[in-house]
Design brief:
Number of strands: 6
Radius of gyration: 25 Å
Helix content: 55-70%
Order of helices and strands: HHHHHHHHHHHHHHHHHEHEHEHEHEE
Number of helices: 21
Structural class: alpha+beta
Length: about 450
């Protein structure tokens, strides 16, 4: 949609993603709307974050510590997930790492320019994700517990304006759009599992007591990801204890604990769900910093430096590979998003002049791959998304659009396999199924009119 249409939509839905949409509006005008184009900014953001994390660790504890923290970071399944996700969360990871790096520089040699950069980093990061303002809260704790940094409280107070201003603006606008997160599961018995596992080690969207929204695991993936979680959490606990006086722990531990705690406690107090693993993706670098922290302790750190470091890193790499491979299969994210299957089936099998009927929950295939639907008629379209300022098109059901549909001899019906209302309605108005193609969760059925 064009830019005024985008602004109209943001006034009704998705205001929290407004800055990201605007950035991607410019990006896609240069690089197009392909899957590769949409995902590349996230890949770049995570790659830069990994490099910054290595530099951050090197300043705090030496090259081995920096390399180990960055290594663990890039092989975490959730990091791989956000690195290939066409969303804003990878950029918040980069923002959090950059802000932490700037905080370390300020601790070493404070200056007004560095505080300015810290505030500007917060401005952009919080604009991309409201929850990222919690990085400021974590850094506030770091400032309080570190005597050297505590002297810079005035600089942080001024720089915090850059973090708090966009948070206030986004909160004011998004407060009128809370219906969008009404589906988020409330805090419950599955929350500890989400925090301990899904948050860092899974490619699932979220978890509830009876549902883990995740693609089917590749062979060995369940065992390996649980094993990876056990190794990294044990290393992080050991690092936090053994190097507890080190500034790296004072930086990483609040960064890991405080945002999660505030979101979960806030959700419990408000009585509704505000926590999803992806919402706090900005803390993905904190756990690797803790997991590599045994290198900061003596004498364990000295022994690891003496040639043994490659052994645990190789083990971590090996155990992470099934998840890495699984995320790169065709349905490695969520089987329900088989939009490419829908578009390719229509492109290969339909002919110009045919019509298609697509359900609202499958309409994203039409929006994502419009070129595959060219030459086909769309009789159920009520109002395009851009015209009514929403994310999805408004569509009539088959019975309402009956007279429109009857103009065409061949109609392709796209519907979730477990739902049959559109297919049943097509038969009721005089069409018979001819061919059916089955995707992981979607059926594409060719119907021929049987009555004049």
């Amino acid at each position: 949609r064009d830019f005024p249409e985008l602004l109209t939509m943001l006034g009704k839905v998705d205001a929290v993603h407004g800055v990201y949409y605007m950035l991607m509006y410019g990006w896609t005008r240069i690089f197009g709307l392909s899957e590769l184009s949409l995902r590349t900014p996230s890949l770049i953001a995570v790659a830069v974050a990994a490099g910054l994390l290595m530099a951050l660790g090197r300043r705090l504890g030496g090259t081995a510590y920096g390399v180990s923290a960055a290594f663990i970071f890039v092989i975490l399944p959730r990091v791989q997930y956000v690195a290939t996700d066409a969303r804003s969360y990878a950029k918040t990871v980069l923002g959090a790492v950059l802000a932490s790096y700037l905080l370390v520089l300020i601790r070493e040699s404070p200056s007004k320019l560095r505080w300015l950069w810290y505030g500007l980093t917060g401005l952009l990061t919080v604009s991309l994700s409201f929850y990222a303002v919690l990085v400021l809260a974590a850094h506030g704790v770091t400032l309080l517990v570190d005597g050297r940094l505590r002297k810079q409280w005035r600089g942080m107070a001024l720089a915090s304006i850059g973090w708090l201003a966009p948070a206030a603006i986004v909160a004011a606008i998004a407060s009128r759009q809370q219906f969008q997160i009404a589906w988020v599961p409330p805090i419950g018995e599955s929350t500890p599992y989400e925090v301990a596992f899904v948050q860092f080690f899974s490619d699932a969207y979220y978890s509830t007591a009876n549902l883990l929204s995740s693609p089917k695991p590749t062979p060995g993936e369940d065992f390996s990801t649980y094993g990876l979680a056990a190794i990294v959490w044990v290393a992080a606990l050991a690092g936090a204890i053994l190097a507890r006086k080190h500034f790296a722990i004072k930086l990483a531990l609040p960064w890991l604990v405080l945002p999660l705690a505030l979101v979960i406690i806030g959700s419990a107090i408000m009585g509704r769900g505000y926590y999803l693993p992806r919402y706090v993706s900005f803390e993905l670098a904190s756990l690797p910093m803790l997991a590599a922290a045994p290198l900061l302790a003596r004498p364990l750190g000295r022994r690891l430096h003496q040639g043994w470091l490659a052994v645990p890193l190789a083990a971590v790499l090996a155990i992470s590979l099934p998840s890495y491979v699984g995320q790169r299969t065709e349905y490695g994210r969520i089987e329900g998003d088989d939009f490419r299957f829908i578009a390719q089936t229509i492109h290969k099998s339909a002919h110009p002049g045919d019509a298609f009927v697509i359900s609202n929950d499958r309409d994203m295939a039409f929006k994502a791959y419009p070129e595959d639907f060219q030459g086909l008629h769309d009789p159920t379209m009520a109002r395009p998304a851009a015209q009514w300022g929403r994310i999805f098109d408004r569509r009539y059901d088959v019975r309402t659009a009956r007279n429109r549909i009857l103009k065409y001899d061949t109609v392709w019906v796209v519907e979730i396999t477990t739902k049959t209302s559109a297919r049943n309605a097509m038969e009721a108005i005089g069409y018979a199924p001819k061919r059916q193609f089955m995707g992981p969760t979607t059926s594409v059925t060719e119907f021929q009119r049987t009555r004049p």
